[in-house]
Amino acid sequence: MSEPGSVLVPRGAPEPGTVRAAGGVLWRARPDGEPELALIHRPRHDDWTFPKGHVDRGEHVLRAAVREIFEETGIVPVLGRRLLSFDYTVRDRPKRVDWWSASPVASGGPAFVPNDEVDVLEWLPLDEAERRLSYPLDHDLLHAFAGGPLRTRAVIVVRHGSAGEKKAWREPDELRPLDERGRAEAAALASMLPVFGPARVVSSATARCVATVLPYARRTRADLATDAAFTVGETSPERALDRLLELSGATGSPAAGSATAGSAATGSATAGSPADGPLIVCTHGEVVSGLITGLCRRFGEKPPEDASLRKGEFWVAHLTGDTLAALERH
User: Fold this and answer.
1) Where residue 14 falls among pLDDT bands split at 50, 70, 90?
2) Once rounded to an integer, what is the mean pLDDT over residues 80-96?
3) Higher-pLDDT residue of 170, 216
C-alpha cells in the first residue's frame, strides 16, 4: 500500500519480459449495505482466489482486468479504485499482477456458468472471504480493499493527443487539429475509458482537446462540454483545480468518517459508485501537472514526483467527497 502522506501510484514500468496479469476484487452490497466479495474456485489448482488473468499481447491492462473478471465470473464490471500491484517470479520469469476494486455494472446480470477453469463462484462477506482465500497475497489484497472507501468517483484527467508541431501551424492555435497519431490515441481512449463507467466529458475549448475525447463521447452517447477553466491561455492552476473539484463534487478537505469496506456508506449500494458517475477532463500539458499536484495537496497527500503526462495519456484520481483514495497514471 501507499506510505503515510502519499497516495497509491502505480510502480514504474516492469522490466522487459515481465508477464503481465490483471484482476479485481469484485464486490456487491448486501441489503444491510455491507460488502460481499466474489471468490472463484479453480479446479485445476483446487484453490479459492479473486478473478484475474494474463494481459493479451497489445492489450491495455485496464481492459484486461475487465475482460478477465467477465470471463471468470460472467459479470460485466466497472473498475473502482486501484488497489495493489504484486511482483514475483514464476518459472524464472518476472510477473506483475495489477488489481482494482470492481463492481457489477448492474445489480443483476447473467448467471455464472461453471467451466473447466472456474467451477464455483461464491459471494462471501469479508470475514468469510478471508477464511476461504488460499494465498497470503490475496489476504493482503483483501485488507487493501477493506481499508479504503467502498465507493469512489473516478476523475480522469487526459492530456490531448498528438497534434503536430505548434511552430508549423500557421492558423489560430485553438484550431490546431490532431495528427494521425493523435487520432489513433483518441480512438484508443474511446475503447479504454469506459472501464470506469459512463462519464461526463468536459474539454478545453481547443480543437485538439475536443477531438481527443470526441470518439469516447460518441461511443458512450455522452454530452461533451467545453470549459475555459481547462483551456490554455485562459486559465490558471488555481482556477483549473477549483473547477475540477466543483465538477467532481469533491471538497478537498480531508475529514474523518469516510466509509470504508468495514463501514459502508449510506444510501443505495446497487451500483457501487456515485450516481453521477465518473468525470473526464481533457486539457493541455501545461495544465495537467498543476491539476494533479494541486489535487494531491488539496487532499493532504504527497504529489507524485512527476505529475506530467505524455500526449494521449491520462491520470485517474479516485475520490470521495473528502478523500483522494488512489491515483493512477496510464
Assistant:
1) confident
2) 90
3) 216
Contacts of residue 302, defined as CB under 8 A and 6 or more positions apart, other chains included, come to: 5, 6, 7, 296
Torsion of CA 268, 272, 274, 276, to 10 degrees: -100
Helix (H, G, I), strand (E, B) or coil at 100: strand
pLDDT digits (tens, 9 = 90+) for 233-275: 999 999 999 999 999 987 765 543 345 565 444 333 333 333 4
Dmax over CA atoms of the chain, in Å, equals 66
255-292 residues labelled b (16+ CB within 10 A) or e (exposed):
eeebbbbeebbeeebebbbbeebbbbbbbbeebbbbbb
Residue type, 120: V
Identify the CA nearest to 25 among candidates 88, 59, 72, 94: 72
* Grid cell at residue 175: 484550431
d(CA 165, CA 172): 13
b/e code 92-102 from CB counts within 10 Å (16+ = b): eeebbbbbbbb
Query: What does pLDDT average to over the chain?
Result: 88
According to DSSP, the residues that pair with 324 across neighbouring strands are 319
The stretch 134-160 carries a mean pLDDT of: 96
Residue in the structure block whose three cell numbers are 476484487: 25
With cut-offs at 50, 70 and 90, classify the pLDDT of residue 10.
Answer: low
Terminal alpha carbon distance of the chain = 19
